[in-house]
Write a structure and sequence with these properties.
Length: about 425
Amino acid sequence: MKKKQVLTLSVIAIALGSALLIVKQTQKNSGPAALTSRAVGDTLFASFPATEIAHIEITGADGSVTLVKKDGKWTVAQRENYPANAVNVNEFIRTLAELKVTRSLEAGPSFAPRFGMDETSTKPEDRGLTATFKDASGKELSKVSLGKNIEGSQDASPMGAMPVGRYIRNHADETGFYAVNEMFFSVSANVTRWLAEEFIAPDKIKSVSLSQKGSDAAAWKLVRDAETAEFKLEDLKPGEALNSENVAPIKSLFSYARFEDVVNSAAVGERADATGKRKAIIETFDGFTYTLTITPLKPGTGSASSAPDNQLVTIAVSAKLPTERAKAEGEKPEDAKAKDEEFATRLKALNEKLAKEQSLAGRTFELSKNTLNALLKERETFVKNPEPAPASPATSGTKAVEAATQPIEVPSVKDSKAPAPAKHKNKVKNR
């Protein structure tokens, strides 16, 4: 054999050996994970039917929630199809469709409890969450379980080990379990976590009134003449002064307010204490009128998460919006056009706000007392007794003169009981 041929064969042998070594090393590093249907870097689902989903049921140790798409909008079945938080629902679906595997673990379905997916457990940390996805006809499209969190390195954060991912299972894939770097913070089996958060937001408040407990008779009414003016208490009695500190929160009533829960109509009568019912009316400079019926909870009728002083609130919203802009005399055409466009934009926004808030009509909401504190004040908290006026300098001087000219009574010597001077027992001898 020629020297050149020997050299060529040697090079080929070395190359084959190197390739075999690489394959063996790869198999060694990948271990059992190489036998799962999805590898590191793959999406969890080969094809996730995101556009077909119309029904989602999420079950955990503490209960379940059912999300149903009706007329293109997500609703919460357990709350009489109250609107769901569409952002959270769509984000959950999108995340699953794009979710990539960071680690694969070969194991059969019987190993589910080891990964925090024990569907028989009553402990949230052992049970995890199971989400079932169906189409409009009720056909099951997919089913996944979310298990234990995956803790990171102790040195990765000054707070200690922090979760960096979660174990997940695709029930249609029985080859293994997978680790992903998604935590699914917004996914829960708690019904209230899925409710749309929009609530009334009275803007530019003009007046607020509150009735007495169990009656339609007015307890108090606050009004103001302009958006920048201060509120005044109607029927302020002689000698009363307004307590501005307690009145001030009325200006921002229900700003960024959130409700605790939506109460089903069948449960309202069982939970509401009608003897403490009150009615509040809020009017705004934009022409909105909010009528709120506020009723305290009967003792012991709240949900597990309810505070005992929570209140039930039903809302009615109406508005008288202008149909055209009042034009100033002598207005220039170019100015009129700009103002007309501004008016049209503003009117559109007000109509959208009205439609959104009127969609809350007929619903009963559970609100914390903190949210209603500014509104549920009694009349006496808005008034204070005036401080006495300080004495004027002239008056003070007169009193001082009067005090100085008053006769001073001096006891007579006869009546005085002062002790007499002591007598010396020893006389001084003359030298």
